[in-house]
Amino acid sequence: MNLTLDQLNTAAPEEALQMLAGIYEHSPWIAEKALAQRPFKSLAALKHAMAQTVREAEPAQQLALIQAHPELAGKLAEQGQLTAESSHEQHTAGLKACSPEELAALQRLNAEYHAKFGWPFILAVRGPRGTGLTRQQIIATFARRLEGHADFERAECLRNIHRIAELRLNDRFGVEPTLGNQVWDCAELLAQHSDVEDALTVTYLTPAHIACQKQLAYWMRDCGFDEVEIDAVGNVVGVYHGTQEEAPRLLTGSHFDTVRNGGKYDGRLGIFVPMVCVRELHRQHKRLPFDIELIAFAEEEGQRYKATFLGSGAVIGHFDPSWLDQRDADGIAMRDAMATAGLDPKRISWMQRHPSRYLGFVEVHIEQGPVLNEIDLPLGVVTSINGSVRMLGEMVGTASHAGTTPMDRRRDAAAAVAELLLYVEKRAAQVPHLVGTVGMLEVPSGSINVVPGRCKFSLDIRATTDEVRDAMVHDVLAEIRAITQRRGLHCRLEETLRAPAAPSAPDWHRRWERAVESLGLPVHRMPSGAGHDAMKLHEVMPQAMLFLRGGNSGISHNPLETITSDDAQLCVEAFQTLLNQLAEERP
User: What ranges make up the beta strands (E) of 194-235?
Assistant: First the structure.
């Protein structure tokens, strides 16, 4: 019989401890301390309490927890001495059916890993959906993480231990994240369409992009949207009608194009989550007192053409007609790509939405960073999308012989940029939520025996407010003047982007907070360092975002980008709660 929260919350201490026995391998102290926080509002609250107990533990306790876990396909498994939980997990992943070659590879990796780090390799082998990783995936992950730094790898082991505990709790309570599984499955299926083999790349109006359009339109119809269309720029638009015909709509969505060799959830998560919510409303024959309009934006990344936010920009009337004449790397003009896809640029101006017809815009998105992962929280409420300034620069000095030019007579352009890079790093670190990056460095025609006469570089400065961002830009420009004057150089700079910060609308921000609280989770407020479609919608209507934790330390724009179906379930439930809040607020 499955355990219930009511049973756990009301049980005597020893009985409650027994109910959670084996959730964390040979470590009953975690359950004992977490149970002091009873009653738990939700299973998510229990999971968080246990993860937080580990996070607050002494390093020696954390290390002991890691060392309490068995090796994958190791001696304990061979001798049948694993705990019932570990045995089930390794069996689910097929580790009991390893070929001789796979077993040899795992044994070698186990030995190398333990020699390097001093503890066993920990991986939640049941995977992000709970159905089990393949042996090939396990071995590939093992080999990749063997290259990691000890501090990082220790934290990654603890994160995997929490995932193992989460799946064990699901089993104990008889919980299946069915809605999260739908989100996860959609991501897997849509990722089958790509511009290239062996990587996920979907750029604007390629055959893979058009295949994604058709798939999304089919899913929207299947979920119960009353109107589904592909608009003049290739956005896929679905409308689920409400009970009040003239009421303002809720607008939501995100993009389905990707960076080159990207991940499955960046942007797409913000399409799947509201899609699953509408599917549930339709299944329950339920209508809200407002329409829900979901837009799967066709372009946000600017990969094929230099037209970032094309999809969301067109929706607010900010499509630049000059973009139609841009040509991609193969010389194909955007105008021609649209014609091939059956799109009519003359209809783009008809797409503009009138803000008075909308309640606001909300977007859910994978975090694309490590913060939520590090603090063991599945959801974060976005306070603001950072404003950014980007520049391309070239430092110019004098190329000279590396052997004959004394150090005090050099006009070294690369050394000057290196000095600038360190200044940017130091200056940005002085202010919370301010970041500065020199991401591109190039010495044209550089040679091992020549003092660099030129050095090209980039600058990317972002902050939650334009004032903080602009103050750093001012200081960086002053530092460039000081460096060039001291070193006898000159610098050419071109500003290529200036995007204003997009703070979340307070009332919408509070709705997301209440949605997170309703799940029994603490509210974590955080800025977004990356740009999103919500930035464009912010120009004409109130907006707010919800972040979902990413796995693999939050890496994004990368094939390793991942989420769990359990976290996706919480994201769907938070979105459902926001919809219910809005319905209750309507007259």
Answer: 227-230
Beta bridge partners of 436: 461
CATH of domain 180-383+503-585: 3.40.630.10
Is the backbone peptide bond immediately before 39 cis, with ω within 30 degrees of 0? yes
**Crossing angle, helix 84-92 and helix 150-173, to 10 degrees?**
100
pLDDT digits (tens, 9 = 90+) for 57-105: 999 999 999 999 988 866 655 556 567 777 767 766 677 778 889 889 9
Strand ranges inside 236-309, DSSP E: 236-240, 249-255, 292-297
Taking the alpha carbons of 54, 31, 366, 128 in that order, is the dihedral positive or negative? positive
Quote the mean pLDDT of the chain.
95
Q: Is the dihedral of CA 255, 295, 320, 391 positive or negative?
A: negative
Residues 6+ apart with CB under 8 A from 482: none
pLDDT tens-digit series, residues 150-181: 999 999 999 999 999 999 999 999 999 999 99
Fold of 387-500: Alpha-Beta Plaits (3.30.70)
CB neighbour class for 270 (10 Å; exposed up to 12, middle 13-18, buried from 19): buried
pTM of this prediction exceeds 0.90: yes
What is the third-level CATH fold of 5-175? UraD-like (1.10.3330)
Closest CA to 315 of 260, 237, 377, 381: 237
d(CA 53, CA 69): 18
Query: 54 phi and psi, to 5 degrees?
Result: -65, -40
